[in-house]
Design goal:
Jelly Rolls; single chain; Immunoglobulin-like; mainly beta; globular; 587 residues; eight-stranded antiparallel β-sheet; 3 domains; 2% helix; Tachylectin-2, Chain A
């Protein structure tokens, strides 16, 4: 349809602001932003909601099936499908049967393709769950492939080798290792006995230590979330550790020439790691290819405020380098990134270059509930939130960018303040208007979703064309439940100034007492609000990135005690990124 007709239709339907044709979200969305904007269900488990009812999912799998993507994750009472990795449509489905007296409906599901069939199996410690199969999952048509499956497997993952042999991997424990076993492709009966794959070794690998500060304070680390990928004849068995509730939740990998081992740790570990920034964590997920053959890694992100298992999902460009090293690119991992349009080199950043414009900038609000202070909406922590006193129409939050800036995109992260729901909800929705002003007096509608009928807990709007403005105001029209509350109103684009200067005085102090750990410090930059620390096992393999806000030091405790590491740092502000420092070799 010609653009002029689209604008006329919008005006007739009242979709734009009063008397004005306003920029709207792009009809051909080019970008996405983590956490993924899915209509997440609420935890169905009453004991997990004692500190407040909240959305929760984790342990995701994306599978390409018949040219489209299917996404399954923990306790969603259904699944999603998509044509483009951005627009996801939910299909309601329970995979439990009357005899299954559990809350967990497809907890940490295994999803795999055999021939023309998609198969699904949920975690269980019993021998009482079926493997479900479908040749038309978009139409929600399922039947049992085998009932029941004879292996009680928690965090299961099936892998079909290119020789036609089928394998199952599983394990979720801070005591036991991962296991693997061949499974009959025809009968789904186990072949032989389960075989031990490998366990954790936190005395060697610092990132595997339990706790927010990797200190093994009160529990041993957990190993879970097996996933197998085969690449150029090698078997990459992936796993999550050390605990799903921590910023350092990550995915590691070991490699073998055979599907059941023996396995050797990849030197670059963990390969999926995001311990800093707005939303943290990159553990327990899966590695898959898109329709162009590009590799991606999907994983679990951490909130863990109302309950340890309050979590979201994140998607990272991934791949294998020229030496067969598996990596996931989490640089600026919760900033806007370009969606794929064809074959891509994921060693090259997919980051748009749109910077966060309102970090710790002044805000005004309509009201405040208790200690849920306004600046919690702009402090770059998904764990904190501002809440209005009500969920009523007219509650608002206004953010000041400090000067005229070019706005390209907005991410609205709602918080579950006084939510009333348990379990997946259908037919709920958010409605709002987003206003902009150059001077704080004359306002125009930038985005009008006052008639929206979809559930958008992490709504992300890429503007059809950028806007020069200074003030933005988010006005509530309707909340699906609870108060009008935000963990992050994040404005992306470019400021009107200069990028920061290169960081000075960068030092990495690695102790002889414990070579898993190092103290990093640098001279604070007056022109920066954050820093990216890039670290890796070689100067050309700086594949891990740690974003640090509001500090000029960082305690990195995630190293292999026997390997040298290499570091560099860059400064970040609303105008761009500095040049990196020279790479430091730390023995």
């Amino acid at each position: 349809m010609p653009r002029i007709l689209l604008l006329l239709l919008s005006a007739l339907l009242g979709l734009s602001g009063p008397g004005q044709a306003q920029p709207a979200s792009s009809p051909g969305q080019r970008t996405y932003c983590n956490p993924l904007n899915l209509d997440y269900g609420y935890t169905p488990i009453p004991n997990f909601a004692e500190a407040g009812r909240h959305r929760a999912t984790a342990d995701p799998v994306i599978t390409l099936y018949k040219g489209e993507y299917y996404l399954f994750s923990t306790n969603q009472w259904g699944y999603w499908w998509s044509k483009d990795l951005y627009n996801w449509k939910f299909i309601s489905r329970s995979f439990l049967k009357p005899q299954h007296k559990v809350y967990d409906d497809l907890c940490a599901p295994a999803v795999f393709v055999l021939g023309d069939t998609l198969l699904v199996f949920g975690s269980t410690h019993e021998k009482n769950f079926p493997i479900w199969m479908s040749t038309n999952p978009k139409a929600n048509e399922w039947r049992e492939a085998v009932e029941p499956f004879q292996i009680g497997a928690w965090d299961p993952a099936f892998f079909l080798d290119d020789d036609g042999k089928l394998y199952l991997y599983w394990g979720s424990s801070n005591e036991f290792p991962l296991y693997g076993q061949q499974i009959s492709r025809k009968t789904f009966q186990p072949i032989g006995q389960p075989k031990t794959m490998f366990g954790l070794n936190d005395k060697q690998f610092g990132w595997q230590r339990f706790g927010e500060y990797l200190d093994n304070t009160f529990l041993s680390p957990f190993m879970e979330g097996a996933w197998m990928t085969k690449y150029q004849g090698k078997y990459y068995l992936q796993y999550g550790a050390p605990g799903t509730e921590f910023s350092g939740y990550a995915d590691g990998v070991q490699i073998s020439d055979k599907p059941l081992g023996p396995f050797t740790p990849q030197k670059h570990n963990p390969f999926a790691y995001k311990p800093g920034g707005f939303a943290r964590g990159a553990g327990h997920g899966n590695t898959f290819q898109d329709t162009w053959g590009n590799w991606w890694h999907l994983s679990t992100m951490v909130i863990s405020v109302k309950n340890n298992f309050e979590r979201r999902l994140g998607l990272w460009p991934a791949g294998f380098d020229k030496d067969g090293v598996l990596y996931a690119n989490t640089d600026f991992g919760d900033y806007p990134h370009y969606l794929p349009t064809g074959p891509e080199d994921h060693l090259k950043s997919r980051f748009t270059g749109w910077m966060l414009l309102n970090y710790q900038k002044p805000v005004q609000v309509s009201s405040t509930l208790g200690g849920y202070e306004p600046n919690y909406a702009v402090d770059e922590s998904i764990k904190t939130c501002w809440s209005a006193a009500t969920g009523n129409k007219g509650e608002y939050l206004q953010t000041d960018l400090g000067s005229l800036s070019t706005v390209h995109a907005i991410q609205i992260n709602y918080a579950d303040q006084d939510a009333a729901f348990l379990g997946k909800q259908q037919g709920i929705y958010h409605q709002y208007r987003l206003w902009e002003s150059k001077d704080g007096r004359k306002w125009k509608v930038l985005v009008d979703k006052s008639r929206n009928q979809t559930d958008v807990p992490h709504d992300y709007i890429e503007l059809a064309r950028p806007v020069q403005t200074r003030y933005l105001k988010l006005e509530n029209i309707h909340m699906p439940t609870g108060k009008f509350a935000l963990s992050g109103l994040r404005i992306f684009g470019l400021g009107s100034g200069s990028p920061p200067n290169q960081v000075k005085g960068f030092v990495v102090l690695r102790t002889e007492k414990d070579k898993r750990s190092a103290w990093l410090n640098w001279t604070p930059s007056a022109d920066a609000y954050a820093y990216n620390i890039h670290v890796g096992i070689a100067p050309d393999k700086l594949y891990s990135c740690i974003m640090v806000h509001g500090a000029a030091e960082y305690y990195f405790k995630g190293m292999d005690k026997d390997l040298p590491y290499y570091y560099t740092i860059e400064a970040i502000n609303e105008n761009g990124v500095s040049s990196r420092t020279s790479v430091l070799a730390v023995k």
